[in-house]
Each structure stands twice: as C-alpha cells, then as structure tokens.
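Researcher: Let's do a round of design. I'm pasting the structure tokens now; please hold your answer until I've finished.
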C-alpha cells in the first residue's frame, strides 16, 4: 500500500522497532502515497514514544525542533 516498514512500525507504536530502523539508516522524512508523513501519522494515532524518536531523528543537524503531540 505504498508504506515503508518504518511507516508501518511507527503507526503501530512499535518504538523499539522504529529506533532500530532509524539506527539502520531508514529515512524518517518520507510520506505515504496519500502524502501523509510518518511523524504526522504516528502523532494522529497517539504513539508519542515513536513520534519523539522520529522527531529527534528528523531534527538531526537542525538548530531547533518543535512539535506537539495531542493525545
């Protein structure tokens, strides 16, 4: 359905798998074929731990990263 392994793991809230995939080099800034980012989909499902991992990874090398998870 056009979703990566990282996308599926994050949407399911599997933080340990998300962390492993990010450390293995999976990109966190991709979108589904519907145009929804991994971080957005994860936040919408309330998986804050996975969302924090994705946000930290996508913020590497940037001065400031701000996001809000609404539960």
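Researcher: That's everything. Go ahead.
Model: Designed sequence:
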């Amino acid at each position: 359905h056009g979703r990566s392994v990282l996308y599926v793991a994050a949407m399911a809230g599997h933080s340990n798998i998300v962390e492993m995939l990010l450390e293995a080099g999976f990109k966190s800034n991709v979108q589904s074929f519907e145009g929804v980012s991994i971080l957005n989909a994860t936040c919408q499902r309330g998986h804050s731990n996975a969302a924090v991992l994705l946000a930290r990874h996508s913020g590497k090398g940037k001065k400031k990263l701000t996001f809000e998870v609404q539960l």
